[in-house]
Design goal:
Elements: H1 4-14, H2 18-28, E1 34-45, E2 53-64, E3 69-74, H3 78-84, H4 89-92, E4 97-105, E5 119-125, E6 142-148, H5 160-184, H6 187-194
Parallel strand pairs: 3-4, 4-5
Antiparallel strand pairs: 1-2, 2-3, 5-6
């Protein structure tokens, strides 16, 4: 027979997925003071040593009005989180990423192997009584709590060309999603609405 604590932990873990965490990020970030770029990807120079170009990809990048960028990396399990440490970004992260934050479910805590410079935001259900509750069913049922603030990694501002590329990618992604949604509407409804 399983211990009640382990059953409660499994129930908490089952309620989280990347979509719910992303919704919590979108509500947490102050959009009046920051630009939130999802699925940010860009090729960048690896430095003056002529090491070539690198591919940079982040779940989210939060850009302040002043032009400083913070990477937000979403992890939903300890295995996924630990695997992230083997990625090349920890060796050649762009100088214009001034802070780095992991956004994880609260029950994962902060393992000792997480880099000290990385911040940690915990995502948790708004209702704290897990024992008598089956779990949230709506994305707005989650909130973010800053468990550990990130260290400043550098003071270089995000290049305007990189931000412009991300805005352009968002523009095209928006129109692709809109056209895809319109294709899903049956033709007789689409044409009937236009009349």
């Amino acid at each position: 027979m399983a211990k009640p604590d382990s059953a409660a932990a499994r129930a908490r873990a089952a309620q989280f997925n990347a979509g719910l965490i992303e919704a919590a990020i979108q509500r947490h970030v102050d959009h009046r003071a920051n630009t939130l770029i999802p699925e940010a990807s860009v090729r960048y120079s690896l430095g003056a040593g002529g090491r070539g170009l690198g591919e940079y990809r982040a779940d989210f990048v939060m850009v302040t009005r002043a032009g400083y960028a913070t990477e937000l990396e979403v992890k939903i399990s300890l295995a996924d989180w630990r695997k992230d440490l083997s990625k090349p970004k920890w060796v050649g992260m762009p100088a214009w990423i001034t802070r780095f934050v992991y956004v994880v479910p609260e029950h994962l805590g902060i393992p000792e192997w997480v880099p000290a410079a990385a911040g940690v935001w915990h995502v948790r259900a708004r209702r704290p009584d897990y024992a008598s509750w089956s779990g949230p069913t709506r994305p707005d049922s989650f909130e973010i709590v800053v468990a550990r603030a990130p260290h400043v990694l550098g003071r270089e501002k995000l290049p305007a060309a990189v931000l412009g590329k991300w805005h352009k990618n968002l523009y095209y992604r928006y129109w692709e999603q809109r056209m895809d949604a319109q294709r899903r509407i049956p033709r007789h409804i689409r044409e009937g609405a236009a009349s």
